[in-house]
């Protein structure tokens, strides 16, 4: 199976976003990609300020049956494609992700964990649920979700062997380094990707935004990580497509042959109250 992780910039212009997605899907199809993971906020872009979001400059609110979502479904064809958007659900707005193919929506996720002022704009999701796709059982997270080990672990326990993490992950907003590779958030972004794959013995596909949105500078660093925490393919801070070919079933089974982290958990030893 070929897995693709995208680093790219997406802003407020939906028409431009769709044109860019069409080009990326075309490139991925040429590369033989079976699962393509686009960034968080593919449709409409992310916030421009994490601490004080501008209520008059928010991403456009879309529903699951919107024209734009339908266009990506049509573009996907036999490919499985994950992408992010601002989901309108009645009076609420969610930072959401959809997993689709040409057959329609395969799975959905609303971001649960909210950094800084994101809660001023978005409602929080309340669950992590795996789902079946043509490329196997999959789970999705949205950027800050991956900071919390329980999020990825719950998806792995629900049978997901591939986890897609869609991000709009910026450089530090309080202690920014002069060069992105030295930024604290750059190190953490890579650390979480490798750790979540290794501790759950799953394949991890991590996408991210690039470029600048308002006061936020996004890191890129899209990658595919194997179940041992090894990076199989990655991009830089600039736009790109990281593609890795891996037999997911065989590699996950091999990583769990002697040490099977999920089977060897000891839940009775852990505190369950907050």
From TrEMBL:
<protein>
    <submittedName>
        <fullName>Nitrilase</fullName>
    </submittedName>
</protein>
<keyword id="KW-0378">Hydrolase</keyword>
<dbReference type="InterPro" id="IPR050345">
    <property type="entry name" value="Aliph_Amidase/BUP"/>
</dbReference>
<dbReference type="Pfam" id="PF00795">
    <property type="entry name" value="CN_hydrolase"/>
</dbReference>
<dbReference type="InterPro" id="IPR003010">
    <property type="entry name" value="C-N_Hydrolase"/>
</dbReference>
<dbReference type="GO" id="GO:0016811">
    <property type="term" value="F:hydrolase activity, acting on carbon-nitrogen (but not peptide) bonds, in linear amides"/>
</dbReference>
<dbReference type="InterPro" id="IPR036526">
    <property type="entry name" value="C-N_Hydrolase_sf"/>
</dbReference>
């Amino acid at each position: 199976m070929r897995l693709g992780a995208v680093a790219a910039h997406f802003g407020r212009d939906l028409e431009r976003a769709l044109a860019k997605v069409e080009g990326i899907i075309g490139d991925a199809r040429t590369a033989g990609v079976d699962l393509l993971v686009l960034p968080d906020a593919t449709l409409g872009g992310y916030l421009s300020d994490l601490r004080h979001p501008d209520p008059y400059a928010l991403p456009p609110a879309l529903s699951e049956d919107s024209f734009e979502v339908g266009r990506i479904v049509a573009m996907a064809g036999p490919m499985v494609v994950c992408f992010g958007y601002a989901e309108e659900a009645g009076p609420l707005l969610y930072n959401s992700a959809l997993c689709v193919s040409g057959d329609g929506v395969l799975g959905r996720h609303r971001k649960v964990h909210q950094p800084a002022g994101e809660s001023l704009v978005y409602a929080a999701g309340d669950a992590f649920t795996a789902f079946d796709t043509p490329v196997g059982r999959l789970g999705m997270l949205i950027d800050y979700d991956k900071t919390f080990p329980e999020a990825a672990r719950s998806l792995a326990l629900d049978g997901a062997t591939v986890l897609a993490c869609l991000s709009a992950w910026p450089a530090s907003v309080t202690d920014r380094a002069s060069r992105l590779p030295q930024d604290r958030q750059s190190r953490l972004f890579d650390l979480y990707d490798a750790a979540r794959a290794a501790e759950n013995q799953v394949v991890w596909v991590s996408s991210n935004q690039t470029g600048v949105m308002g006061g936020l500078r996004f890191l890129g660093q899209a990658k595919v990580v194997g179940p041992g925490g090894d990076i199989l393919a990655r991009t830089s801070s600039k736009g790109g497509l990281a593609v890795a070919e891996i037999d997911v079933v065989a590699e996950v089974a091999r990583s769990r042959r002697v040490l099977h982290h999920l089977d060897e958990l000891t839940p009775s030893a852990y505190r369950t109250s907050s």
